[in-house]
Amino acid sequence: MQFSLFKYFDAILDGAEQNGLAALEQPEVKKALAELDSFLPPLSDVAKLVFSYYYVYQLKPQPLFISQLEKDLNAPTLYLEHEKVWQELVDLDLLVRVMGSEYLMPRSVIDAVAVIDLEYYWPNDRVIIAPEHKKEVFWRWIHGQK
Amino acid sequence: MAKNEIIYVAKPTRYTEQTYPGHTKFYEHFVSQLREYHEVRALELPDIWVRDFLPVQNVQTGELYQLFFDPRYANYTPKFTAAIREQVRGAFPRVKPCNVRIDGGNIVLSPGKKRAFCLEKQTIFHKSNPGQKEHAEQELKRALGVQEILWLPQQKGDKIGHIDGYIQFLGDNLMEGATNIFDGDIALETLLDDKSSNLLASFHHFKTVPLLCRIDENNWLSAKGLYVNFLETSRAVFVPQFNLPEDDKIVTIMKKHIHKPLVRVDCEQISQYGGAVHCLTREYERSTVEKYF
Questions:
Q1: Quick one: which H or E segment has residue A58?
Q2: ipTM higher than 0.85?
Q3: Which residues of A are less than 8 Å from B128 in CB distance?
């Protein structure tokens, strides 16, 4: 996936699927997590993992099952031990709490990632969004420019 | 209309056949029909709706521009979309970038190719940000070589937002998809809402022809009955057929408005996956496309 931001999400999720949270210490996963820092607000590594999961696997505006997330990420007690991570994402408007442990990623966040993804489709051709503006562009798209 | 086009389609693979059962059989017949009029090139790609993701051709210069393909409907997961982008970039390594997130099926050019019609989508620009809209228009004008971009409102309940499911031009006539017609050519209800139809009428001076479309409102993905998704080339018009009673009537209506061979393409099965002839093809002018390989 040379021409897509997806390669970083894939590296993070692939690592977790094989090694659970221990994957967050692997060099290739750390590199991918660092890449997300270019546009995401400051987040813990676990929060970036959870963000990646919702971005890739939430195909409809419906909450994902926490049990499925924990199974896929090979981390059976992830929500129990890291519930504050979900709150961290909610506080930053990156997830919305529907009820209980049901969360969804708003469409505006998915679209904001796409705007950043554009940069990765044209490597070395020209700078579309200057690195120092990526966070601002991402934030503005999440909030509908209002 | 470009002369002597080369038509690009997606080659059937085990993967496309799994995703779209019946694609291999459809392809064999369809390509033989296309080859009677044009050279056809088949690319091995993960997906078959090439209109949406292959580069667009600038009508002035013949240059190819790659729009940013990033849909989030039907079976387009981030992984699938990334795989499509990767393959397309490999097939067209020397295209120029066009930094607008829009599917090719959401662009219809007017006769004379001075204008492009598109449906508004929030993924292209935020309505509340004129700067984004202006940027999208400038980029699209640069890529397509048109003078004007005309936006129609996104239609209620439409999860895809491709204008080639609503209108197309046949010769100098605007063919507007309609769900009901009376006495041949009188539209009772067009696929576009009233506001959009009125807006469209104010944009152009072409003769509008309602083209009956027998759609299934309960299946938003299916394009079965969407006759407006035809393909007109310099040499022929390829008309989708769906094994519906309206098939013959559509051909009769179209014959009144164009003096080119009309080729009936059996899209009964393939259309259920989301498109018809126009969605399955991308045409390029032969004289300018070779240098991109």
A1: none
A2: yes
A3: 144-146
Confidence class for position B1, pLDDT limits 50, 70, 90: very low
Q: What is the pLDDT of residues A59-82, one digit of tens each?
A: 889 999 999 999 999 999 999 999
Domain ranges for chain B: 5-292
- Chain B residues at the A interface, defined by Cβ less than 8 Å, are 66, 68, 70, 72, 77-79, 81-83, 85-86, 89, 97, 99, 101, 122-123, 126, 128-129, 132
Which of B81, B97, B101 is closest, CB to CB, to A122?
Answer: B97
C-alpha–C-alpha distance, residues A88 and A36, integer Å: 16
pLDDT digits (tens, 9 = 90+) for B245-288: 999 999 999 999 999 999 999 999 999 999 999 999 999 998 88
Contacts of A1 in chain B (CB under 8 A): 79, 82-83, 86
Give CATH for domain B5-292. Answer: 3.75.10.10
